[in-house]
Amino acid sequence: xxxxxxxxxxxxxxxxxxxxxxxxxxxxxxxxxxxxxxxxxxxxxxxxxxxxxxxxxxxxxxxxxxxxxxxxxxxxxxxxxxxxxxxxxxxxxxxxxxxxxxxxxxxxxxxxxxxxxxxxxxxxxxxxxxxxxxxxxxxxxxxxxxxxxxxxxxxxxxxxxxxxxxxxxxxxxxxxxxxxxxxxxxxxxxxxxxxxxxxxxxxxxxxxxxxxxxxxxxxxxxxxxxxxxxxxxxxxxxxxxxxxxxxxxxxxxxxxxxxxxxxxxxxxxxxxxxxxxxxxxxxxxxxxxxxxxxxxxxxxxxxxxxxxxxxxxxxxxxxxxxxxxxxxxxxxxxxxxxxxxxxxxxxxxxxxxxxxxxxxxxxxxxxxxxxxxxxxxxxxxxxxxxxxxxxxxxxxxxxxxxxxxxxxxxxxxxxxxxxxxxxxxxxxxxxxxxxxxxxxxxxxxxxxxxxxxx
Length: 454
What we know:
CATH topology of the largest domain: TIM Barrel
Number of domains: 2
Order of helices and strands: HEHHEHHEHEEEHEHEHEHEHEEEEEEEE
CATH class of the largest domain: Alpha Beta
Strand content: 15-25%
CATH superfamily of the largest domain: Glycosidases
Helix content: 25-40%
Radius of gyration: 22 Å
Oligomer: single chain
Strand order of the largest sheet: 1-10-9-8-7-4-3-2
Number of strands: 18
Mean pLDDT: 92
Structural class: alpha/beta
Shape: globular
Largest sheet: 8 strands, parallel
Number of helices: 11
């Protein structure tokens, strides 16, 4: 997960979000059809902050979002999080003794809209809940985490159906130590936390919920952070306590080279090499374990170091959706963020800039489109979000030749119950494609132009 404790969004962002929501139109144009792999949207601080939450949720609703990921930071809700000693008389299993603040109001609001909610527990943790009481990430207490998970389960049990035990436990920002005397230490620390978290939630009456393992960062350098597949093997070590893991979650961020980047370290997993993770699960005897992508995004300008051009962000995001949604092992996909972090040290993976300006990916998110060159053909894969149809609807495929000033309709395709459509067209060099869709209520949406890759 990117930066924690981000500054409050300015009133300008709230106003821009509300304007965007109104422009996008109402989502109440028919009941949504179930998608094979739900998209969990993590809107970050813009959703947690009381000043921007309503506009953020309205915008997500207009985009067809119906599943929310909330990264619940333990230290942000616990009493006296910087104290060395646990507060006197504090019953850590009692949800009324925590200040759930924006997290609670967000989860309540998402539940009121009928959305699925995934909660991922995250560091930093209270200083009093660590072994040496020196910082907020080193050797968190599994016993204290059991109590916290139990309290969270009691508070949100009726609203949450999926839980992640720790955010990016193979990254030093969220768990230390990663290595001890050159050997990975974080897998064993995480294993104890995972066991405690699951047991705490089960004790709170949430045994029927989905318990995710992992939520791993995409890479590790084998010095400060553990590569995700090395971490996986360490968690499921021989002779270790059996873990309840209903799905293994991962955050397969790539770099500026795009979704087809192949990391040279074979224990690192970005979005173009998800098969590495699937093979690793098979190798430890977990062939039936589904993969959950619970955080993902493509960074764009204004970050000129890690970000690509905004038009390219939209293309990469669509290609990434195709990769994930055509993989039967993937149980869920994700988008992080809606609004860019204001500081460039954070993430610029949003669909809207920090000042409220829509990127090309805002329109693309509703109508992802990937165009792939294969031999003498162009294979198109697209998704309509929301797939909010009563009965069949269709999309118009628009094409623009390099020498033409205007686009024209080249094909129409019927959308299936999951909102997906495909087409195979003759290959012509220099063409770009886009999609036009008219919702049952009459609103018409047009995605941004995309180039052909491959």
